[in-house]
Every structure is written in C-alpha cells, then in structure tokens.
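User: I'm curious whether this sequence folds into something compact or stays loose and floppy. Could you predict its structure so I can see for myself?
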Amino acid sequence: MKPTLFQSEVYPAILATNKGEFVEKWDYIARLRPHPGVIQIDVADGKFVPNTTWITPARLAKMDSKKPLEIHLMTENPAKNVLAWKKAGATQVVFHYEAVADPTTTMQTIRKAGLKAIMAINPSTSLTRMYTLCAMADGVLVMGVQPGFSGQKAYPGLTKRIQALRARFPHLLIEADGGVIAGNMNSLREAGASILYSGSAYFV
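Assistant: Here's the prediction. I'll summarize afterward.
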C-alpha cells in the first residue's frame, strides 16, 4: 500500500555564513505570497560539520518571525541552547544522531523545553539500526547529503531510505533535506516524505 502523504510541502531552508546572506534570504521569504508555513534555519558550529553559520539565538530573536521555525542544529551538544532557541521563536529542533552520545536524553531535553524533537540521520548511518530511536522521536529528518554545505547533489539511496522508513512507520513525520531539487521532489513525495526542505527551490 502506498503512503497517503502525496501533499508533501516544500519549505525553505536558510543556510547563511554571514549576516548579509541571512538577511537577504529571510527578507525574500517574508515577501513570498503565500508565505511558507515553516522556515528551517540551518545552524553549523564548525565542529560537527566543517562549515559555520552566522545565526545565533540572540540574532534570530531580532528577526521577529510570525511563522513556525525549525532549527536544524548541525552542531555538537545540540541540547545546550534549546531554551534560547525556543525564546527566539523555534517550535521544533533537529539534532543529529551522529552528534550525540545519548539520543534519548537529547530528545527528552528538547521536549522538556516545550519543543518537538526531530532526529536527523546522515547518509552514512545505517537506517535499520535507527528504528527503535525513530519510534521515539517526534519526527525523522533523512539527510540527502553529508551535512554542512548547501548545493550538494543528493546521494542515490535517499528515495529508498525514505521508502523503507515509511513502510516501517506509516504515521511518522518524515522530512527530507539536502539535495532536494525540482528533479527529485516528486519521487521523494511518492516515497513517503511528509516535508521537503530546500534552499535551491527558493534561492537561485
């Protein structure tokens, strides 16, 4: 039986290494009509991934978003500043399984702050090993690329990983991020992705 999630939304992901780039992308999204329902903010620390981003909780708080924000923490110790991200407008936080020693405790810390806990899984991580943790998470973000940089091409196995996850968990929130472009959006939807995050779909 095919998944009944063909209305996958495509939401913008902002990855910016400096203030000018972030503000330009943020202002562009603000002018869109209809406005995207969710904005994903990528945060990189230069430790878990080699890249660094400009945004911080204090800077985000000044942006005054009226829409839900998903904070994608490509960082070590992602639970450290969850309360600050919530005060800045976050409604859910993505942490990477590969970045933490105890995913269960990380989820608990995020939820205790009143946020949804989304677990990201990198392409190199075995999906079948993650099933118990996936069942505990509020959602799973399946990475199409190694995290850290935008503009990468999705690896060939992304669609099959989403299919396998959807077959195992018919009602799980499944996000796809990294390498999501016009050419693969339909296949990702049909595979069972609930939400697609893309920078290239919004910023050219």
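Summary: The domain at 9-198 is CATH 3.20.20.70 (TIM Barrel). The chain is about 30% helix and 20% strand.
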